[in-house]
Design a protein that fits this description.
By secondary structure, the protein is mainly beta. The chain contains no helices and 12 strands. The strands form 2 sheets. A 7-stranded mixed sheet has the order 1-3-5-11-7-10-9, with no helix packed on it. A 5-stranded parallel sheet has the order 2-4-6-12-8, with no helix packed on it. The radius of gyration is 13 Å and the shape is globular. The relative contact order is 0.24. The model has no long low-confidence stretch (mean pLDDT 89).
């Protein structure tokens, strides 16, 4: 599939194994757990909830994170990218995460 779009109003999501070119995930209230494998572009938006991204070590990802009252938490090596992003590896893939009040955990 070219695009995969998932949404919920109140509830957590766990997503793994998506092979679409782009993945859009939206939730108003609930945590999101993503195992990114084969998506070139991933977008996650949540109002109240944490986002957990599991990035494959063999594929680089550039992560852009925007929040009102959260923070990015990771123990993985990364470097700052132009435009406020963070490179994990070479950065062939892109993940954009937006939360109003939630943290981004990168594994």
């Amino acid at each position: 599939a070219d695009k995969c779009r998932l949404s919920t109003v109140s509830g957590s999501m766990m997503v793994t194994g998506v092979t679409a070119a782009s993945l859009d995930v939206h939730t108003a209230s609930g945590d999101v757990r993503l195992g990114l494998a084969a998506c070139a572009m991933t977008s996650v938006e949540t109002v109240s909830g944490n986002v957990h991204l599991s990035l494959p070590a063999e594929v680089g990802t550039t992560v852009y994170f925007e929040t009102d009252s959260g923070e990015m938490l990771t123990e993985r090596l990364h470097a700052a990218a132009l435009g406020g992003g963070y490179h994990f590896g070479v950065g062939e893939r892109v993940a954009r995460v937006e939360t109003k009040s939630g943290n981004l955990h990168i594994e």
